[in-house]
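Lab notebook: predicted structure, single chain.

Context: the supervisor wants predicted structures on file for every construct in the current expression panel, including those that have not yet been purified. This is the next one on the list. No modifications to the sequence; it matches the entry in the shared construct table.
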Amino acid sequence: MTYGTILWTGILAAVATFLIIPETHHIFVSATNAHPYLMGFVKFAILSIMGEYLANRLVHKKWVMVNGVFVKMMIWGILGVMIVLMFSILSQGVQGAIGKGVLHVGDTWASPVIRAFYISAIMNLTFAPVFMATHRITDTYIDAYTAGKRMSVQNVISSVEWPGFMSFVIGKTIPFFWIPAHTITFLLPDEYKVIFAASLSIVLGLILSYAKLQKTV
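Prediction complete. Output recorded below exactly as produced.
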């Protein structure tokens, strides 16, 4: 086992242990409730960049440094804040639409599942594509900048491999992974919802980075 593998799994184990131990779990939940934006920033900055490192490992067959790692962590953190906001807006919005009869869930054992599916589907079919495209553009710019290339925003956008992005990231991961995964997220109690979303942020960083790296190596 390489030092990179030990470090990566060690960080993941430390995070998991922090979330599992009752005392620290309580601290995590309390901090999330008191400071949702700050915790959203920290959670996505750390765990999503771990996904990027894992993507590098899978593509290059060895642990490779993520270009502009601290800037990318800042970008992930900002995107994490946006996700926290969208979780709240969409949850309350769907509940409001159900209350007005615009969306129908019925009154059966499946009603909570249908409600969670509505939230997940709306989020992933509206916000998620913009979110993922924004990440791809900023990621491409940071990679070019760290390589010594100075590119305009227009050139960065043009250099993104959009057909692959649309066919894989949007066309496959959203319907087959993200909508089902976030349906589960919105079924969970709030304290477990936070933990589950944190674990998914690793997958998010992995998917977005792996899809891009496959086209560049």
